[in-house]
Design brief:
The chain is an alpha+beta fold. Helices cover 24% and strands 26% of the residues. It has helices spanning 31-46, 51-54, 115-125, 180-188, 269-280, 285-294, 320-331, 334-342; strands spanning 16-22, 56-61, 78-85, 129-134, 137-148, 151-162, 168-176, 201-207, 211-216, 231-235, 238-243, 248-251. The strands form two sheets. The chain has a seven-stranded antiparallel beta sheet with strand order 1-6-5-4-7-3-2. Strand 8 (201-207) and strand 9 (211-216) form a beta hairpin. Helix 1 (31-46) packs antiparallel against helix 3 and helix 5 packs parallel to helix 7.
Length: 344
């Protein structure tokens, strides 16, 4: 989505838009990824600075008394609403793979111009439905048959309607099973995005154009299978890694060690360790000492250098933590550091 680029003139709204995507397109995102990518469209439109105040997000289990047109069809299932005032945009940005005002630009969580289309397709494959509206238009997913070389192929597109502009950009998701897992995804979805009001964040320690360092709040990190996780690493505004010490680290710029595999949701320990090192190189003396204190449990995890092969990880850092300590030691007054550590 794009902010303030939609022409509210008298352009005609088509009845139907073909996306050129077949229903058997080989992609199957789970509920968590679907919800995240829909939120991401709003996040990029609003910006992380105003996300908490301008993004309305709520979920519910629908029943017969739910005031929605789809309540009878989807009673007992999960309904999610996302909405923001303004931020209208042209439906044409949702019509092409790769078509996005974010393509090639920095400062956005999304960049490939496919998130909304693929998320909607995967939602329909799971038996769900959606309604998206902005400005004077409204769309719903639409399945239809098309004949290609005497073969009938099920295709995917949008059914469009004209509406009266209510001043909001809104997305309603219907028909997701109200399982415990899906309810957990709905409840924790906003934690995956970088913004100062995130419930996982404590006080800001240091923020700059390319990075940010925050403390941790008392809220538990939703990593049920990893009990030792104490912090979160955000890469380009999305939670992508785990930290074994209580901090929130965010890097906006591109990492040299970043794996280009987009299917990988969680970055490797080696990449996260390199990211922490990158941030440590830029910290002020005060923030450096703060980070050093939070990493106390990792002080003994620094092994000796290996001559031939170096494997970097957060638990077996192969010199990465040693290098961080060296950088911090250079930037912080030695006497003050010793006194501070002695008092801990």
């Amino acid at each position: 989505m794009n902010t303030n680029t939609y022409d509210k003139g008298v352009c005609e709204i088509p009845d139907f838009i073909s996306l050129g995507i077949t229903m058997d397109y080989p992609v199957r995102w789970g509920v968590r990824r679907i919800i995240r990518d829909f939120i991401q469209n709003f996040y990029d439109s609003i910006g992380y600075e105003h996300f908490a105040e301008e993004f309305e997000y709520r979920w519910e289990i629908m029943d017969e008394d739910t005031p929605a047109a789809a309540c009878s069809r989807y009673a007992g299932q999960l309904h999610i609403r996302m909405r923001t005032p303004g931020h209208t945009f042209s439906y044409e940005w949702l019509s092409h793979i790769g078509g996005s005002t974010k393509t090639g630009k920095s400062g956005y969580a999304g960049k490939y111009g496919e998130g909304f289309k693929i998320a909607l397709l995967c939602l329909v494959k799971l038996g769900g439905d959606a309604e998206m509206s902005s400005g004077r238009w409204k769309l719903r997913p639409y399945q239809y048959m098309e004949e290609i070389e005497d073969r009938k192929v099920e295709m995917f597109g949008y059914r469009m309607e004209e509406r009266e502009d209510d001043g909001f950009t809104t997305l309603d998701l219907y028909g997701l099973p109200a399982s415990d897992e899906n309810l957990r995804y709905a409840r924790e979805a906003l934690l995956e995005f970088f913004f100062p009001e995130n419930e996982l964040f404590g006080d800001a320690v240091e923020t700059a154009e390319d990075y940010a360092l925050y403390g941790r709040s008392d809220k538990e990190i939703p990593c049920m299978e990893h009990e030792d996780i104490q912090g979160v690493f955000y890469y380009q505004y999305i939670a992508r890694g785990r930290l074994p010490f209580p901090a929130v680290v965010h890097i906006q710029g591109k990492l040299d060690t970043f794996e280009c595999d987009r299917s990988r949701e969680i970055l490797s320990e080696a990449t996260v360790a390199a990211a922490v090192y990158t941030v440590a190189e830029q910290l002020s003396p005060k923030a450096s000492l703060w980070l050093l204190m939070r990493m106390e449990a990792q002080w003994k995890d620094t092994p000796k250098f290996k001559r031939k092969r170096r494997r970097v990880s957060m638990k077996n850092a192969d010199g990465t933590l040693r290098s961080i300590f060296t950088l911090i030691g250079r930037s912080v007054d030695a006497d003050y550091t010793h006194r501070k550590m002695a008092s801990m």
